Amino acid sequence: MDTWFLTGASRGLGAHWAEAILERGDNLAAAARDVAALKPLTDRYGDRVLALELDVTDRAAVDVAVTTAEQRFGGIDLLVNNAGHMLVGAVEEVSAEQARAQMDVNYFGALWTTRAVLHGMRSRRRGRIMQVSSLGGLIAHPSLGIYQASKWALEAMSQSLAAEVAAYDIHVTLIEPIMFPTGLAESSPQAAAHPAYAHAREALYADAARSGFVPGDPAATAQAILALADTPNPPLRVLFGTHGLEALRTEYAGRLAGLEQWDHLSRLAQG
Length: 271
Fold this sequence. Notes:
Blueprint: E1 3-7, H1 12-23, E2 27-32, H2 39-45, E3 49-53, H3 59-73, E4 78-81, H4 96-124, E5 127-132, H5 145-165, E6 170-177, H6 198-211, H7 220-230, E7 237-240, H8 244-261, H9 263-270
Parallel strand pairs: 1-2, 1-4, 2-3, 4-5, 5-6, 6-7
């Protein structure tokens, strides 16, 4: 029996994952901003659930929550950083407060929980850390720049972390969901639209349509995350959903072509 620590456990993908984790017999420290939303889990699964009211941007509260879970269950085997929101808006449209809040939740929130579990995982010389990123952690689209910047930061930190903790048999995996109807956009802050950037919002939806993305089944992701947890040597990155590989091939081919086209300036800069 493993013990999981899951943020954003009350809705969206996290709600499906919480149910699947408990259904298979594991323990779960379920964290959410609204702890009342976790009552159905505690009613159904009893002592195998530790419901935690948690704002992941509060570093001290994160430390307390992780310590509480470790004391209750004897340690955390798997951390899933799922809490987050998706700010929609062009770079100039987004307020300073919105930009900071986006980074605080999506990047720093995951950083604080990751740091909080590492001591215990290193001591036991085993553990799994799953970071819920996005296809947008690998590609940037107009009108999602601040949201995707938070995911790009998560990607870099997690890739470095994976190399740092591999010696302790701690595995880090970035989960890259593509398109799932979870209500994330509807429940997230939106920047005040400026007519100067109407074309950017149109380009965002055009890019999605052109890529052929089809909404996936959120419930199906639960079986995928359990399979990932049971994989002896999990990948650093895994896409959840289809058509992501095609989009990435186009993205990276374009990056390399652009760098090769301007290699003469690279050589000029070398001296």
